[in-house]
Amino acid sequence: MASHLGMDPERVEHVRTQAAGSFSLIENAAGRARQAAWMSLNPLSYAIQPGGFIIAPYSIGSTQLAAALAESAVRDAEVLLARLGIEIAQQIETSRAGSHTGVATTQSSRTRVPAVGTSAAEVAAWWHGLPSTTREQLLREFPELLGNLDGLPADVRHDANLTVLTSQLADPSLDKKTREQLELVREQLELAQKLYPDTKIQLVLLDWSDDSYPKVALSLGDMNEADFVTPVAFGISTGIDDLAGAAKAAQSLYDEQQRLLSRGQAEGSSAVVLWLGYDSGNQATVAFDYHAIEGGKNFNRFLDGIETQNPDAYGAPAVHSYGTRMLSEALSTGGQVDAAVMLGSPGVRDTVTHASQLNTSDGVYSTRAPQDLVASGFYRGLETFLEKPGGTNPDPNSASWGANVFASETDRGDGWGHNLYSEDGAGGYLNQGSSALRDSALVSLGLGERVK
Questions:
Q1: Are 374 and 417 in contact (CB under 8 A)?
Q2: DSSP-assigned states of every residue in 354-418
Q3: Strands 215-220, 318-320: parallel, antiparallel or unpaired by DSSP?
Q4: Domain for residue 157, yes or no?
Q5: What is the mean pLDDT of residues 265-276?
Q6: pLDDT for 80
Q7: Cα separation of 165 and 204, whole Å?
Q8: Are 266 and 451 in contact (CB under 8 A)?
Q9: Domain check: are 67 and 188 in the same one?
Q10: Are residues 210 and 327 in the same domain?
Q11: According to a count of CB atoms within 10 Å of the terminal CB, is the N or C end of the chain lower?
Q12: Are residues 243 and 391 in the same domain?
């Protein structure tokens, strides 16, 4: 499609939509602040505890929340507008070069590399059609153009991303924050290789194009050859700085899969993919859906890449907290998996009123620990308090929603809070000894009929 100055209209519209979501959040926060101002004039907004002690008025809490929402939205909007400016500048430069894709100049020719976001099928066809010598030269000279292309073989993406990681860490001009984050990636990559010496470890996403929210994906097992592929996605405020904890959750699920496979419960090999591929927002934005919407687009592209390279694999994502909202967006807008596991969901997309709206062949499985007051109480109460348009998000653990609801408890019979994984003794959905871990592994291996 032709566009002014070589700009991709779909890409610009994508960024514009994100900006609009941020400004909508600011407008909502302003409304809450106005309401709080009126409430502060009303003595009925104050509460008195038994015993006569005056506690903080409801209006103060409302004002603080409104301020947090506004500050978060302003930061998001500033980042998005800066990205839009960079995008415009890049598109202008690209238009002068006469191409909308990356251009890698090899000794023999100018090879046009598909842009990130190109369909996985197109990327796979392009790569398949290249001579082996051109592939090798692209990997050697332009790894930054290849590592994040959904549709390329996982080994190719790993080799490209590992080259970029090594090169970046060798750059003396690299800023301190980025260096520390990339060191985390290298540490987790090396640790996984040490923990699983006979398992292929693949770095299939290393994206610093938005340095306010870097994206990483690490596969335990061969993503393109495994019989069972399980992407694991996370909730709010889980980013690159939380990589070590996210890795432990993924490792725990992978270990449980291996235990079941070694006992002959299923046949084949598995891969668990730690996917930090979207900006999940924070507590100030959790009641809203625009992070889930944008994340769902990213997740669908990632799923398409797996499907293109490994079409026979059984795919069953396991997602936690706000990640369940992201997944419900993905699977209700074109994404397709065999089954889905939702852990500690605060509610799915408000447009998804029944499990049948999600594209799964074997259904959706959902659980929430009895002690998980964050998902069952705080988030849903926050949505009500903010008068979220469309009302509170549907609960996948309700009987009417249509999921296969299973229990969450430890082998001691007790439970935990909202943690996905915890090392401090508090427990979590994917901690060893929990029924949620066992059942999540069963679903991921196509054994959902055994889940209780």
A1: yes
A2: SGGGS-BSS-EEEE--TT-HIIIIIHHHHHHHTT-TT-SPP-TTSGGG--EE----BTTS---SS
A3: unpaired
A4: no
A5: 98
A6: 61
A7: 12
A8: no
A9: no
A10: yes
A11: N
A12: yes
Q: CB of 374 within 8 A of CB of 419?
A: no
pLDDT digits over 30-60, tens only?
666 655 555 554 554 444 444 433 434 444 5
pLDDT tens digits for 396-428? Answer: 999 999 999 998 876 544 456 788 998 776 679
The CA distance from 178 to 223, in Å, is 27
Indicate which CATH number applies to the domain containing 355: 3.40.50.1820
CA-nearest of 298, 311, 275, 271 to 124 is 311
Residue 121 lies in a domain: no
* Residue bearing tokens 């909502």: 28
pLDDT (tens digit per residue) in 312-356: 999 999 999 999 999 999 999 999 999 999 999 989 998 999 999
Sequential DSSP letters for 87-101: HHHHHHHHHHHT-SS
Beta strand extents in 305-368 (DSSP E only): 314-315, 318-320, 340-343, 364-367
CB of 57 closer than 8 Å to CB of 45: yes
Say which residues have a Cβ less than 8 Å from residue 382's Cβ, sequence separation at least 6: 286, 287
Residue 397 corresponds to which tokens in the numbers above? 């653990």
Whole-angstrom distance, CA of residue 193 vs CA of residue 41: 61
Residues 193 and 77 in one domain: no
| CB neighbours of residue 344 within 10 Å | 30
CA 109 to chain centre: 37
Total structural domains in the chain? Answer: 2
Question: Domain containing 20: what range?
Answer: 4-97
326-335 burial, b at 16+ Cβ within 10 Å, e below that, comes to bbbbbbbbeb
Structure tokens at 107: 């000794």
Question: CB–CB of 204/158 below 8 Å?
Answer: yes
In the structure, what pLDDT confidence band is assigned to residue 113 with cuts at 50, 70 and 90?
A: very high
Backbone angles phi, psi at 209, to 5 degrees: -65, -30
Angle at which helix 120-128 crosses helix 290-309, to 10 degrees, equals 30
Tokens for 395?
């609960």
Query: End of a domain among 97, 127, 158?
Result: 97
